[in-house]
Amino acid sequence: QVQLVESGGGLVQAGASLRLSCVFAGRAFSSYAMGWFRQAPGKEREFVAAISWSGGTTDYTDSVKGRFTISRDNTKNTVYLQMNSLKPEDTAVYYCAADDTPGLSDNPSEYDYWGQGTQVTVSS
């Protein structure tokens, strides 16, 4: 069984930075691709970023390219999302997810395990 626990969310002003962490509890973290998604009130869950099992390949949605960085530390079973230059439109609940199939996906339905989410609120 896999459990994911996110942390690092909070309330910040526009232009600030936050780093989200997601700890993976279970076996074989390094065999999973990991993703970050977000969901704002009244909106569907959307893809933010993904990283391959090795960390060698990443993917981002266009709206966060150049501002967000996904990374992982396989020795700590943790994936990170560094968020810089935050904007009010980044406000959402952020979820990490694990995918045991090869390749990176931006489709939430392809992810097998999900965390409970952490709230990020960016004020203008």
Walk me through this protein's architecture:
The chain is mainly beta. The chain contains no helices and eleven strands. Strands 2, 4, 5, 6, 9, 10 and 11 form a seven-stranded mixed beta sheet that branches. A four-stranded antiparallel beta sheet has the order 1-3-8-7, with no helix packed on it.
Q: Which features would summarize this protein structure in a list?
A:
single chain; 124 residues; mainly beta; 7-stranded mixed beta sheet; 4-stranded antiparallel beta sheet; globular
Helix content: under 10%
| Anisotropy-based shape | globular
Secondary-structure element sequence? EEEEEEEEEEE
Broad structural category: mainly beta
Rg (CA only): 13 Å
* Total helical elements: 0
Mean pLDDT metric: 96
Main pleated sheet: 7 strands, mixed
Strand content: over 45%
Uncertain runs with pLDDT below 50, 5 residues or more? none
Set out the fold topology.
Blueprint: E1 3-7, E2 10-13, E3 18-25, E4 33-39, E5 46-51, E6 58-60, E7 68-73, E8 78-83, E9 92-99, E10 113-114, E11 118-123
Parallel strand pairs: 2-11
Antiparallel strand pairs: 1-3, 3-8, 4-5, 4-9, 5-6, 7-8, 9-10, 9-11
Short description:
With 124 residues, the protein is an all-beta fold. It is 0% helix and 49% strand.
